[in-house]
Design goal:
The chain has 246 residues and is α+β, with helices and mostly antiparallel strands. The chain is built from 6 helices and 10 strands. Helix 1 packs antiparallel against helix 6. The model has no long low-confidence stretch (mean pLDDT 89).
């Protein structure tokens, strides 16, 4: 009876892990979209002078260009602290760009066409594609942006790194250029939503970040629960191994 319970715990744990990994980044449909996630980003001229900030032991200069507010649903993300991202950490010494969030808003969300697309984030870029011809025609490229988010406030950094695909967010701050003297690193920003290709990403100095609605909370919880159950099942097998029947 005990070993049957162990087998059941093991199977349930593996099911939770598999289901959680499959479903935790699923994008909600239009019925779950908040009205606050629909407006296009807003920008106004910024008169603030360039200012110094520090992150990861590196001193940067940030030059704000426009006050900026971004709302929408995150469809893909890249955390620049990932162990394999040697470009930001080792090549550029860029510790200020903490995360990239690819965000969709507007009619693309209202119509639900965002769910008929595939998204992926690389080190610098957000990619989107579909095999659905109708979705390709209806998808609006001016309602998606890849955003390089800059922050050195620990609370804002933690909040930004906690955002996952499907979450609906609000980000306020400034479209900005930034750089540091070590190695002559400098990076700019797009200031329009209809550009494409290299240089089309928005670089935002973040002063406020909020998650307006989280997605898939249950499925996200399923993964750590499943891992905990798996470890418990393996521990029980080690402490109470099956005994041969005589």
């Amino acid at each position: 009876m005990l070993h049957a319970a162990q087998n059941l715990l093991l199977a349930a744990s593996l099911t939770l892990i598999a289901g959680g990994l499959w479903m935790r980044d699923r994008l909600p449909g239009p019925e779950a979209v908040l009205p606050a996630s629909l407006p296009e980003p807003t920008q106004e001229p910024e008169r603030r002078a360039p200012f110094p900030v520090s992150a990861g032991g590196v001193d940067y200069t940030v030059r704000p260009l426009y006050r900026y507010e971004l709302r929408g649903m995150v469809v893909s993300r890249h955390d620049t602290s990932a162990w394999w991202d040697v470009v930001h950490r080792d090549w550029w010494g860029d510790h200020l760009n903490v995360v990239d969030l690819c965000v969709v808003w507007g009619e693309t969300l209202r119509s639900g066409v965002h769910r008929r697309m595939r998204y992926a984030s690389g080190t610098f870029t957000c990619y989107y594609a579909t095999d659905d011809g109708e979705a390709r025609q209806r998808f609006r490229p001016d309602e998606i942006s890849n955003n390089h988010l800059l922050a050195n406030d620990p609370a804002i950094v933690k909040r930004l790194r906690g955002v996952r695909p499907g979450d609906q967010i609000l980000v306020r701050g400034a479209l900005a250029e930034y750089g540091h003297a070590q190695g002559g690193f400098a990076r700019g920003t797009s200031t329009r939503r209809d550009d494409r290709g290299n240089g089309a990403c928005e670089t935002i100095w973040v002063t406020e970040a909020r998650v307006l609605r989280r997605a898939n909370a249950g499925w996200r919880t399923a993964v750590p629960l499943g891992v905990g159950g798996l470890l418990l099942a393996l521990a029980l097998w080690f402490v109470l191994p099956p005994r041969p029947v005589e």
